[in-house]
Amino acid sequence: MTSRFSKTILLGLLLFSSGTLWAQEMDHGSSSNLQIGFGLLELPFLILCVVFAFLTARELRGGKLGRGMTLLAWGFLIMAVGHLHMQIDHIFQLNIFQVLMGEPIATIAWYLTLVFTWGLSGYGFYLIYKASSS
């Protein structure tokens, strides 16, 4: 029963993702209600992933596996904040980073944050890989 439930959830997420991509492709850059709706639906899934990432990291209690999951959780949290920022910018045309830091510094900060997020996630996955292969 649990396996069937997991497969159903996974299929639903895949269909939702493909529907979001299709809607964004069909939209051609305008601010339609459909695209805004799909963008807002993304946020609860991000929050749920962040919560479960931190819960999993806490349950693993240290070690390479726990450290890796903690790094992934922090990477997911930073990514979720970035996605929230993108939705605010898309819906309200308000780039919070540019307002706080100015145009050139905000762009540099955005790219550095992306690299930092990928670094946390990559190193976290590396630690999990090393822990699982030893």
Characteristic terms for this protein:
mainly alpha; flat; single chain; 90% helix; 134 residues; 0% strand
Verbal overview:
The protein contains five helices and no strands. It is mainly α. Helix 3 packs antiparallel against helix 5 (103-133).
Distance between the termini: 32 Å
Domain tally: 1
Question: Roughly what fraction of the amino acids lie in strands?
Answer: under 5%
How many DSSP E strands?
0
> How confident is the prediction overall: mean pLDDT?
81
Write the topology of this structure.
Layout (H helix, E strand, L loop, with lengths): L1 H26 L5 H28 L2 H30 L3 H6 L1 H31 L1
Helix pairs in contact: 1-2, 2-3, 3-5
Summarize the structure.
This protein has 134 residues and is mostly helical. The chain has helices at 2-27, 33-60, 63-92, 96-101, 103-133. The chain has one domain (39-133).
